[in-house]
Amino acid sequence: MFVRPDCLTWLKQQMVNKYQGKGVTKVIGIESRGFIIAPMVAEAIGAGFVPIRKPGKLPAEVVEVSYKKEYGTDVIQIHKDALTSDDIVVLHDDLLATGGTMQAAISLVKQFGVKQIYVDFIVELDALKGREVFDKDVTVESLIHF
Questions:
Q1: Do residues 117 and 145 lie in contact, with contact meaning Cβ atoms separated by under 8 Å?
Q2: What share of the chain is helix, strand, coil (3-state, %, to 5)?
């Protein structure tokens, strides 16, 4: 919850500062908290916004990936026509813990053959070492480390 609008503005500006001028064409928000900041950043840098959602929530044809979580398996989906091989994308979520959901999102996005993937979090729980699950070709940024 963002009770103070200046905090929301500050978070948005931190991401804009990181990604403006890097040729980003799409900002992808991971359901559901990734939907808060990602669309605002997309608009500010002149990029499109793309949601990654749980099954059954997107209205058109989808591509999906299933992945293991600490307590079972889950599935995420993206529209089949959301990305192209010309895209440079930022994948955004609020929290990096173990990295499972974001790793699945990266796997989903890589199916489109995009040019570059940036991964962005507001908070990273360093002790859980979630960053270690990502391939070295993926740039990972977190604003706050605990």
A1: no
A2: 30, 35, 35
104, two tokens: 């699945």
Cβ-proximal residues to 122 (8 Å cutoff; 6+ apart), any chain: 11, 37, 94, 95, 142, 143, 144
Count other C-beta atoms under 10 Å from residue 134's C-beta. Answer: 17
Q: Catalytic residue numbers?
A: 33, 70
- What backbone phi and psi angles, to 5 degrees, belong to 19? -110, -15
Percent of the chain residues past pLDDT 70, beyond the cut: 99
Nearest CA to 54 out of 82, 33, 30, 70 is that of 30
Interior/surface letters 102-115, b for 16+ CB within 10 angstroms, e for the rest: bbbbbebbeebebe
Classify residue 81 as left (phi > 0), alpha (psi -120 to 50) or beta.
alpha
Kindly tell me the sign of the dihedral angle through the C-alpha atoms of 110, 24, 32, 144: positive
pLDDT at residue number 71: 82
pLDDT digits 0-9 by tens, 34-74: 999 999 999 999 999 999 999 999 999 999 999 988 788 99
- What is the rounded distance in angstroms from the CA atom of residue 21 to the CA atom of residue 17? 9
Q: Is the bond leading into 107 cis (omega within 30 degrees of zero)? A: no
